Amino acid sequence: MYIDEKDGQEVIVCTVGKTVLLYDARCINDLHAMLKAHGDWMELGAADEQKPAKEGTVEAWGRSETNPVGGWYGLKKGLRGRFGMYLPPLMEALGLAEVEHNARNNRMRAI
């Protein structure tokens, strides 16, 4: 993952195999602020764009009309999902969040 610019917008580029996903870079600060306000563990709930996200999860928040960008942080139509899979490890690496590493049903919280 790395930060780049596309069409005048700062983006997070996430390459998974040959697939390149783009996320609005504002999601890092926005997700951290939301987790701080939430104050407790939150389930990740990763899901592809075509599948519904479980309510109350990081994934659901990353596509919600009530988040700071008013919808998807993912920028590539058809590949906008998986926010709850790829952003939490980045937040952990940046020292902004604690993430569980269980076989399934992982959660995260702000540091």
Tell me what you see in this structure.
- The protein is an alpha+beta fold and 111 residues long.
- The chain has one domain (2-110).
- 25% of the residues lie in helices and 25% in strands.
- The protein is built from three helices and six strands; from the N terminus they run E-E-E-H-E-H-H-E-E.
- It has helices spanning 27-38, 58-62, 83-93, and strands at residues 2-6, 9-16, 19-24, 42-43, 97-99, 107-110.
- It has a three-stranded antiparallel beta sheet with strand order 1-2-3, with no helix packed on it. A three-stranded antiparallel beta sheet has the order 4-6-5.
- The radius of gyration is 13 Å and the shape is globular.
- The protein starts with a strand and ends with a strand.
